[in-house]
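Batch 3, record 17
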Amino acid sequence: MIINILSLNSFSVYAEYFIVVSIIYVLILFILVVNNIQGLFFQNVISEAFAIILLSSCLLILNENQFFFNVLNQQLKNKLFYSLNTHSLYDNVSAISKFILCFCSFIFFIIISEFFKKSLLTFEFIILLFFAVLGLIFICSSGDFILIFLSIELVSLVSYLITGFRKKSIRSIESSIKYLVIGAISSSLFVLGISFIYLFTGSFLISDYTILFLDLTYSFFTKKLLVADILINYKFLPAFENIVNAFGSNKNIFSNSFLIEIGLFLILISVFLKLSLAPFHLWSLDIYENAPIIATFFLVPLLSLVLLFFYLEFLFHLYNIIII
Amino acid sequence: MLLDHIVINLKTYYDNEYYTSNFYINWVNLQNSIYEVESYSLILYSFFVLQFLLVGLILLVVLIGAVYFINFHVKTNKSQITVKQVACNF
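Prediction for the assembled complex:
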């Protein structure tokens, strides 16, 4: 029985791979030297070192063939390809969002380097921040709901930890607990939405969801609604009969597409919660006021940016918008 | 039975470039084979390998956070860091 374990059409995760290896290397290094005199020296330069790592990951993203060929040559045609068993998605939106994220993180790590020189925060803080950056990069390049959920959880966990990083401050711990509760609610709604969509379609992959909205293919430049010859709706899914048989003869469950609408609605609510958009914005004030300044400086812009990019990309693929 | 079902799907997926996973598997009929560990491992280590590694990273983050928050230094002896006393920048 021969199975190809990974179908790598192209290795589009250079930046993620490089960042993971660098995190693990730095973590091992610091664990070995933290109680020595050399640890004090390394703590001075850790922030700048991570900034250089992010700058080199920017270069890795720029040097990928697809990005260079499309964006820098001003070709607007959105070439999309998948790798790693269609779990990793690569197109112009993901490339640009990854590049902006890495560059902004590079500037962020240079700005906060003074905090580490005065030894106000320990090395664990910056390693956790780097894990958060990794999670944000995974959100940009994921083509699968499970990967998106896990990367959002990675960022959220780091956020809970860094908001409560000042152990001796009651306010900091209180903000961390509040953020934990809100984040848990948001994640649970996200998973519930994914489960509804899986119930309807049988797949987690975003590439499979384009079939749901094929009759809404729209071209921005030609301004034509390209209607498919065959109106594909849920009744023509290959396994419609299996779905009905699994739930008995009650065909009314699938007479409307409300299940997928509920799923998308729940995902929307969870994203609104995370981005602190109205009417789910009241938690942000308590948390940003009492958390360490570096934590708010990191959370507010970068997390919002990446979740907005994710939502844009998801809608692009869902509604099969073609920019020609 | 579950194992055979998964193997057939994986083979067609990798052999045929136009084959997508847009199908629904009726798990109710495969209920007897739901405890096959080999089938789960085939899926986890081939199709969901990236997610598996990411879960490991999440656990690593939890470990780092737990170690940091639980660490409690009790100073029994007075100590000095000579480097800090001698250096200009510390």
